Amino acid sequence: MAKPATKPKDDPSPAKAKSPATPGDNSVSPDELKAHYRDMLLIRRFEERAGQLYGMGLIGGFCHLYIGQEAVVVGMQANVRDKDAVITSYRDHGHMLACGMDPKGVMAELTGRSGGYSKGKGGSMHMFSREKSFYGGHGIVGAQVPIGTGLAFAHKYNGNKNVSLTYFGDGSANQGQVYEAMNMAALWKLPVVYIIENNRYGMGTSVERASATTELYRHGEAFGIPGERVDGMDVLAVRAAGEKAIEHARSGQGPYILEMQTYRYRGHSMSDPAKYRTKEEVDKFRNERDPIEHIRKRLLDAKIVDETALKAVDAEIRKIVNDAAEFSQQSPEPDPSELWTDILVEA
Amino acid sequence: MSIQVLMPALSPTMTEGKLAKWHVKVGDEVKSGQVLCEIETDKATMEVEAVDEGTVAKILIEEGTEGVPVNTPICVLAGEGESAADAATPAAKAEASRETPKSEEKPKAETAPAAPAVVAAAPEPEWKGGTQHITVREALREAMAAEMRADKSVFLMGEEVAQYQGAYKISQGLLEEFGEKRVIDTPITEHGFAGLGVGAAFGGLKPIVEFMTFNFAMQAIDQIINSAAKTHYMSGGQMTCPIVFRGPNGAASRVAAQHSQCYASWYAHVPGLRVLAPWSAADAKGLLRAAIRDPNPVIFLENEILYGQSFDVPEDPDFVLPIGKAKIERAGKDVTIVAFSIMVGKALQAAEELAKIGIEAEVINLRSLRPFDTETIVQSVKKTNRLVSCEEGWPFAGIGSELSALMMEHAFDYLDAPVKRVAGLDVPLPYAANLEKMALPQSSHIVEAARAVCNR
Questions:
Q1: Which of B259, B302, B329, B392 is catalytic?
Q2: B354 FRET partner, CA 20 to 30 A, in A117, A195, B159, B434?
């Protein structure tokens, strides 16, 4: 067997995406490029503020930040239709913002307030929006994969043309239920796109130390599921690969796997000192491969916008995030009576 | 506007830490994400990054300082267009200080409000028309077929439910009537198809997930409890999971420990689930129809030995039973015997034996384990003053344990004898015929227990 060509793990240079899409794809309009920049920046600033509120003791428990991975969800969500289902793990704040959920409601859930999406009863890892077809926010590693596959099943059963975007990490990629779900998805040709956000570490264990084969995009081969590896630090590469994968699923050809090579700058959760990787590795990604800087530079180089315009975007985002932070502290804690509500639906 | 940077908490339990090292000095410009300093706790060293941009105006805590409480201002950043000197003055209005966390306020002593009163289930109505004498198996099939005819979002999935016609023939004929879209053979992949069912329910369908036995549902229990039972609560009521997990539970015959466990107390423990355990064919039909219509996840515990037993079932096409209502199967004044599933039949046999020696036993068929019909049992105990609980599962932390506790809480003054539990022995169920018989509770054990509490 030929040894798969794996890149050294601290090499931040772009992965060779198999997708025909190139970052120079002319099909992306200047407005779309600006929107991607803005959407990624919103996630970045939101997460930084969440980290700060955590440090102030306003957010409790676990808090998993998405900083560094913004291009994945923004690139994928650029392709969705209104009723396409989205589901992910507990590193979910970015997905909610990219689905169009209100930053105030998300931040207020982080602070455990009544204005949060789950009325303060779910927290960072457990938020949902039926309106935005966002199905969580799941705290058990890998559990969202069969559920996301079931959402695809429901779409197919109902005969609509919607798909399910099921996100999970490289850590989940070793869970048995992921493969149980992939088998059924392929067997029944369910319209699901599995997006593996490979940020190189499942908590503190690198992919190389956790997966016998590290080409995660090939993990569906046993079921005949096509897959490809995508540069997850490049929003346009993600978008192009996502378009193809979603079209595959939507047209009734069954599931598709996209392995997004990405990187999280922060620890696994707020309380992770991240001793399992070097500072140089993190800095290299930050300085050379940052998804937001990449698009920022592109916008300036192509003279789509100038510095002043970008400053205006920064200011707009800062206001949104400040308002969310403010709301998340002003919104009252849930009423004690909420303790006993929402346990069962009363028929 | 100047910004105070506060000593952060790096974990849910951190209250103070050491400011180990500054990475910036007064006059430095900092960007969002730039490392400001290093903090040491007893567990780790971590870097503190700037959230806001600005110029370092003043360092308030020198490096090397130990025991810095969380939320102490550690430095001041001057915002754009503001001189560092202005920002460093104590009079400067600090944005961060305005955001003094609520958690620093003296916590109010909060006690949980009392649980809302349990709304008693409506009593079972009188059914008009005649009855049919059918097996539990036929009753379950009729229930599924009736609900599938009524609601196109109901479908059945599980191992061997379609082409094979069901491992225990519960789904016989359903594939022919409803087609392969709605009667679906799954691979042997319990965790996967339970999770897929939960996703389908989140997506608006009403799955009936058949487990070939509940023993195999242990493979899937994470999805049943963490995903199906808890998501309604965790979503603040946004998400619903109308799903039925059904299949045979408890001992069959000579299939040994891995295939013979009763899961009643496991599932009855969990808020967010409904747990039903039918005994008769009428229970099976009426409760399964109710379970499929219910908007919540329902655990439906059947019993393989009962599948072939026949009972009278109302012919009324609208026949359905209320969830949460126990049934008095036999009235009596001397002792209350509470049972569910196969033990109801054994309790009725025991009552016959007891009648021969002049003990009139009242036999209650629980039907529903969550919600639990405490009221019906308490009313009975107020009359009989004695209680025997029966279950096939293990005694420790079983349904009988719960029943004993409930009687202490609700009927202590009415009890003339301690509650007596009849349960399976506290061993993995053996294969050998003689040992198996000894390990499972029989009607003779119920007779002994009833005599003991009656001092007869």
A1: B259
A2: B434
